[in-house]
Amino acid sequence: MTRMLIVGPPGAGKGTQSKKISEELGIVAISTGDIFRENIKGGTALGQEAQRYVEAGNLVPDSLTNRLVEDRLAWEDAADGFLLDGYPRNLTQVEAFDGILARLGARLDVVLELVADKEELVSRLSKRAEMEGRRDDTEDVIRHRLEVFESETAPMIAEYSTRGVLRQVDGLGAVDEVNARIMKELP
Ligand code: ADP
Asked: Which of 7, 30, 89, 125 has a CA 20 to 30 Å removed from the CA of 142?
């Protein structure tokens, strides 16, 4: 059983690799971004609350996000391990996540960081914009999401590095190549 996070800047390939890791390890992959997008599409109360933040490339308020994750991790399918993609995303969420794990009586095994340089990220995200039409993949919002990553999410990754659970993998290259690098780093 593995409990892990996948972290990295927007466009690093977290979603793509999450799906593969989830199949390979037999654990559920949970993406907070996907959950927000599904709820926005479905017009749920959660979606209505989250929409303006997601579309502007800002973080959805911590209280809402923390509650969402705690509820989701209580599902049966997460009892034997999970891969979280997109959470925690700042230091406040790390603290909340520590509490969630403590209440579950669980501990985190590994935080996997996909590393990619900025040029590559912008080009990948612009391509994805054409293919998927995500409303937060416009040039201005992409730039803003990268800034939010630098200011809020990078310190969160540094915290896990201090705790000694961070593993870094180069996210550049073919999907299978990157996946092979990841599998070598997992416990
Ligand atoms: P990316 O990593 O490419 O930015 P995500 O799907 O992870 O894509 O996130 C998309 C958006 O969803 C974020 O810009 C933010 O608005 C919202 N979001 C996702 N996860 C969180 C989180 N943990 N806390 C707050 N907002 C979040």
From this structure: 30
The C-alpha angle with vertex 114 and arms to 49 and 55, in degrees rounded to 5, equals 20
Which ligand 1 atom minimizes the distance to the CA of 61?
25
Tokens 């990220």 locate to 121
Using a cut of 0.90, tell me whether the model's pTM lies above it: yes
**What are the tokens at 57?**
């490339």
Residues classed as catalytic: 14, 89, 128, 134, 145
With beta carbons less than 8 A apart as the criterion, state whether 54 and 60 touch: yes
For residue 145, the CA-to-ligand 1 centroid distance in Å is 9
Structural domain harbouring 167? 2-180
Encode pLDDT of 136-155 as tens digits. Answer: 988 889 999 999 999 999 99
**Number of the ligand 1 atom closest to the C-alpha atom of 93:** 23
Evaluate whether residue 30 is within a structural domain.
yes
Number of neighbouring beta carbons within 10 Å of residue 164: 7
Ligand 1 pocket check for 65: Cβ under 6 Å: yes
